[in-house]
Amino acid sequence: MFRSWILAATGVLCATAVLAQDASDEYAAGREEYLVACAACHGEKADGNGEIATMFKDRVPDLTGIAKRNDGTFPLLKVIQSIDGRAVIRGHGNPMPVFGNRYRAAANGEGAILGTEAIVRGRVLELALYIQSIQE
Fold first, then answer.
1. DSSP string spanning the chain?
2. Which of 123, 79, 125 is nearest to 101 (CA)?
3. Under 8 Å between Cβ of 99 and 31
4. Quick one: 128 exposed, middle or buried, by C-beta within 10 A (0-12, 13-18, 19+)?
5. What is the spatial distance between Cα 79 and Cα 69, in angstroms, rounded to a whole number?
6. Cβ–Cβ < 8 Å for 66, 89
7. pLDDT digits 0-9 by tens, 112-122
8. What pLDDT was estimated at residue 9?
9. pLDDT tens-digit map of 41-87
10. pTM tops 0.70, yes or no
11. At a CB cut-off of 8 Å and minimum separation 6, what does 53 contact?
12. Is it the case that residue 15 has pLDDT exceeding 50?
């Protein structure tokens, strides 16, 4: 019974946070996540020209062309799996070296904080939806 109550309270808190988000910018959380975790390599404009992009042997991909490279369809599940480390990407290793643990519940205190896995999954989804929103 107590566990059910805690889960319900967590759901209410998460819903409140979503509703509090500025409705005029539905991708704000994903953009912020992108700037924290991806922009150094992929660039603020997601064009592959991040501050440290020149340090890589291969060119850093332009993330705004993912849909174009997939016959006009954005592969949301594939992108999510790339972010959370389930799909290995050459150049990222597994998990992505700079922030791989950011998208793993165990590394974020799984079991220590109620809802940690939900937070991690939400972070990944917000990021993937933001990347989807910037497709050319």
1. -HHHHHHHHHHHHHHHHHHHS-TT-TTHHHHHHHHHHTHHHH-TTSSS--TTGGGSSSPPP-GGGTTGGGTT---HHHHHHHHHTSS-BTTTBSS-TTTGGGG-TGGGTTTTSTTHHHHHHHHHHHHHHHHHHT--
2. 123
3. no
4. buried
5. 13
6. no
7. 566 777 888 89
8. 44
9. 999 999 999 999 999 888 999 999 999 999 999 999 999 988 887 77
10. yes
11. 41, 42, 43, 59, 60
12. no
Residue 26 has pLDDT above 50, yes or no: yes
CB 3 within 8 A of CB 18: no
Compute the C-alpha angle 128/70/134, nearest 5°: 40
Q: Phi/psi of residue 93, each to 5°?
A: 75, -160
